[in-house]
Amino acid sequence: MNEVKEALRNIEQNYKLFLQQQFTFIGALQHTRENAHDMIRPVASISQVQSYMDHHCNNSTDRRILNMFLNICNDLSQLCHKLETVHSGSNITNGILERCKLLLSHSNDLSTIRAKYPHDVVNHLSCNEAKNHYGGVVSLIPIVLDCMKEWVAHIEKLPRHMLYDAN
């Protein structure tokens, strides 16, 4: 369990660095969307960000920040799979993990999700950007982090004999 908490802390630290560069991330998405001639539809999935980076990214700054986003998503996905091995699960914890896995699915449509208070990632976007283009993709990581913290909180409330170590 300590290993899980440590991994979660590391991801949160990486996310804090990423968050400081949110405008760079939005700029990179804007540039790559322009290069892809894809200015109408919203950035709605992890695979869309991956495709923009792989096929339409022209500079190292944009590539670095898009890669940072994708790496955090990958780390969250790996942690999600690790959580499955730490505990056999209750209805609550299994539901939380399923939600995380769905959100982190590369083809999942993120266009309608929005991080809510205390997260202010969407507040840093203009109204048009938030509503129409990037609100879902900037909301993904804080929502998944909240779910994982909720999972840890539920697991810590369970009696010790219900936990098992997969090592």
Account of the 3D structure:
The chain is an all-alpha fold and 167 residues long. It has helices at 2-19, 22-35, 46-56, 60-86, 91-104, 127-132, 135-157. The chain is elongated and about 55 Å long. The termini are close together. Mean pLDDT is 87; it is low at 163-167.
DSSP strand (E) fraction? under 5%
Q: How many runs of DSSP E, i.e. beta strands?
A: 0
Would you identify the regions where 5 or more consecutive residues have pLDDT less than 50?
A: 163-167
Radius of gyration: 17 Å
Shape descriptor: elongated
Compressed to H and E, one letter per element, the order equals HHHHHHH
Percent in helix: 55-70%
Classify the secondary structure makeup into a structural class. mainly alpha
- Multimeric status of the protein: single chain
Cα end-to-end separation = 11 Å
